[in-house]
Amino acid sequence: MPSVSSPRVRSHTPMSASPRNTERSNERTNEKRPKACAYCFRRKMKCDLAIPCSNCVEKGEDCVSVARQERPRPTHEKIEKLEAEVLRLENLLARSQASPAAGSSSYHGPQEWMPGPVQHVHHSHHSLSPHNAISPGEAARSRLRFGQYGDQSAHGPTSAFFDDLPEREQLLEDSPRTSGLDEATEKRYQSQATAMAASERHNEVLNLAAGKLELDGVAPDLAMHLLGLHWNRQHYGFMVSYRPLFTRDMACNGPYFSKLLLNAIYFSVSKFSDRPEVYDDPSNQTTAGQCFIRRIKALLGEALDRSSIPTIQAMLLLSSSLFALGQQSAAWVYSGIAIRMIIDLGLNYPMIGNLHAAEIEIRRRIVWAAFIYDKIISLYQGRAVTLGGNQMHVAHRFFDLFEEQEQWTPYAFPGVHQYPGSPACAISTFTAYCSLALIMDQVITHIYAETSVPEGPRVHLHRLSASLDRWRASLPAVINCDPGSEATAPPPHVLSLHMVYWTLVTLLHRPFVESGHLYHADPPQTSICWARCEAAANGATSLLSQYRRTFSLARAPYLISYTTYVASTIHVRIAAQRGPQSEASRLLGVCLEALSENGATNPGVQKMLGMIQALMARMGVSLNAGSVSEAQDDPLGFGLDLEAIVRSFHNRGDEMNIITGNGNVNQGDASVPGPPGPFLYDNSLDSLYGFLNFQ
């Protein structure tokens, strides 16, 4: 007979009478106690919970207990909403997998600007066999990992984290080359982001009046003055900062604000300010913002422990500002930190998740701002790009359109009183910058960083030249700019965009004039390349004159001076043959005055001015004391000795110098040591790529 178990009787013994229950009760009590004091928690150190703890005693810190807040349990309503959101995203992911080309038109990749059929460059040593190939969606998902608190990091298939990815990775977009959003979703995100920007602009005023904005000890009047300079001027350069989230979190210490970023903004715009309190020595322009640099260095150590969006933004702003001050090494290091953090967070890969439209927007803006700046600093220093076009898997389509039609007036440009104002066209300009930077990436990679034979870059010339032509032809009418127009000048960031375009035309074509053997092999092509350089120099200088008349060059961005320097290298060679009464001589004079004017606040500009003056002395070029009001305007390339121009690029009569894989420079059959550091290309005394390293 099977035994029948008797029913289990629940014990009514008080919990205090059970040692095991007493232990559990103590565990629950301990869970509510702080696990570290404020200092140990901030420094991620083990705390012994003594009062004061041993770490605080050793470091001389005030030992302050951290009160732990109870987190409310999620309600059924919230769980249902999250389940519905997951279902919606799963359906969206399934649709994108079923029709991967559905959103392809939303990505403006480099091939969009290429002539004829799209040609993909395949590198055999990077190719995957059919047995180990992975889909684009799997590749994207393999790189992003989410922590338990919503933070993210990027890892590849070889990482130990690859097999530990949580289910939430399914929220990633499947195609790394598209926005992954259908038209209705994209429009909804645009409405959300633009509406939030308008709302936060209003809240910014209210929070300032209520004293809620974190200014890090700076007087409100000075702080808002510096922030106003930033939003009116520097912000439009590469759109590194994102105002709605920055100002929102400035009032609540949210994740998109940090004191490091705030002080980076203060420092980067101090040179535009006339306030004596931002100068250590008001008589010395180079001391602007030094008090903020000291504060930045105090904040920097802790900020580098963990990748974050505000730290990335701060590093990019610091890099740009320090380079203009001549601190090239620091600028390179800070930009490298920013890009490392971008890759660490996987910001160069698309994701949707539970992010608000504005949070997707800030990620897109940051990664593209870094991509643009990476190309600029590569040109300055002659170093290989750090963030290549093949690493960009995020569409440069932006949701927040608030600053597109916002009226822009030159608040940050002292002495400009008659400018009528203009729509900012910020998003159109930034989007065009992104497309131009993709072409710039290829020019640097295929023309200046080529490590094979000198003929290698020739195969890319026609393709990239056509890409530049198509880029300009496809610009929206609102940001189109005719160099010879007498109309009111557009905002300075629009002028800068077009000046960079003309500079890139010169960067592409000038190497094919510098290389003497190419001239002898194909004189007509060399002649065409020189004509393109001459047209580009004229176009850039016309825009420079317009910029100077309207806004002044006294505190213009460093990039304006670089475009001026590049144009000068063309003007000086034409002036050497056509004389001091020529149009080239007049344009050269305009460039020299611009470099001199801008050199007062940007010490790095003085190097460029000195290089052009040295080139003038070597070529015997002198300018008239007075300006040339009616100079002869000859057709492009007319009457010029092209062989003499080719010879003028070579200090020792050498050919186009290509750095080989072992760091040496090829000069015919000889091999001589190359310049120090990872500089890939050397050409002449007035080098365009890495010009600061060849003086």
UniProtKB/TrEMBL annotation:
Predominant location: nucleus
InterPro entries: Transcr_Regulatory_Elem (IPR051615), XnlR_reg_dom (IPR007219), Zn2-C6_fun-type_DNA-bd_sf (IPR036864), Zn2Cys6_DnaBD (IPR001138)
GO cellular component term of the entry, any: nucleus
Biased composition (Polar residues): 1-20, 97-108
Residues covered by the Zn(2)-C6 fungal-type domain: 36-65
GO terms classed as biological process: DNA-templated transcription
UniProt-listed SMART domains: Fungal_trans, GAL4
Protein name from the UniProt record: Fungal-specific transcription factor
